[in-house]
Amino acid sequence: MSQQNQSKSCSFDDVEKLMKTVQLAVHIPTFLLGLLLNVLAIRGFSSFLKKRWPCYTATSIYMINLAVFDLLLVLSLPFKMVLSQVTGSFLPFCTLVECLYFVSMYGSIFTICFISVDRFLAIRYPILVSHLRSPRKIFGICCVIWVLVWVGSTPVYSFHVKMENYTCFHNMSDSTWSAKVFFPFEVFGFLLPMSIIGFCSSRSIHILVARRDHTRDWIQQKACIWTIAVSLAVFVVSFLPVHLGFFLQFLVRNGFIVECRAKQNIILFLQLSMCLSNFNCCLDVFCYYFVIKEFRVHQGCILSPCLFNLYAEYIM
User: Fold this and answer.
1) Residues 6 or more apart in contact with residue 270 via CB below 8 angstroms
2) For residue range 11-44, what is the model confidence (pLDDT) as tens digits?
3) Closest Cα partner for 206 from 126, 124, 130, 288?
4) CB within 8 Å of 25: residues ≥ 6 apart
5) Does domain 12-314 sit in CATH 1.20.1070.10?
6) How far apart are CA 194 and CA 192, in angstroms?
7) Are the beta carbons of 310 and 220 closer than 8 angstroms?
8) What pLDDT digit, counting tens, does each position of 301-311 carry?
9) Is 161 helix (H, G, I), strand (E, B) or coil?
10) CB-based contact 273:245 (threshold 8 Å)
11) CB atoms within 10 A of CB 300
């Protein structure tokens, strides 16, 4: 069933009116706060690169990459807020804004995924990681992430294909919600990264807790556990609801859910969860805080090859 036919039989006017107010209340502070925090984060981690501390170079590259993706999302929010209220928006500009929005979302997801893998390997195999990791390799991984998300964004170009009356970030074509487009996005863009992040985070916490009675620096390891737990919580809270909303909307657009009230609730849930996912660019600051705190006390914990100094006693 097309979106046009849906709108004839089921009105979403009340949801749209409510979301206009919600978006103003959420997007404006998200934009202001996210812009400030991510600029400060980029500046802070860049200072560590300038100091050329080998323990923190790789970590800083990852964190700058994450902050750049968050900043990209922040900068797309004002355009998203305006274009989503205008019918028949200028298609090339609308497509560009939609592309930037989804590139920043999935770029953040992939960056967090690689950070989680890197952190787990550093905790589990500190000697191996200390020899294999280098700033050039980490920079190469970040470049691969950018290529992946830009190539993966190609379906965005057909979001409004052959549609005369559409609104940016709404009224997406039926082909957008086809199984061949939706499931690769859902599986490779979220489910697989979430599984990897969940596994690496849980294993890292398990390893650190198991070492409690054998370490001389439990306070330092407890800080590591908090960093891992906060990072995982931020990821789940930010991205799980919106991808659940995408799945429910997929069921609607493919005729599995036809009851009007259910459709209205799903579109409301999807819009609210997208607002929540946008706030991820501010929630990431908690991760930055813990990492920078570790830097300030000159102890490599999270992603640093200096982990060798901290954990060598357990593998002798």
Assistant:
1) 242, 245, 246, 248, 249
2) 888 888 888 888 888 889 999 999 998 998 888 8
3) 124
4) none
5) yes
6) 5
7) yes
8) 444 433 333 33
9) coil
10) yes
11) 23
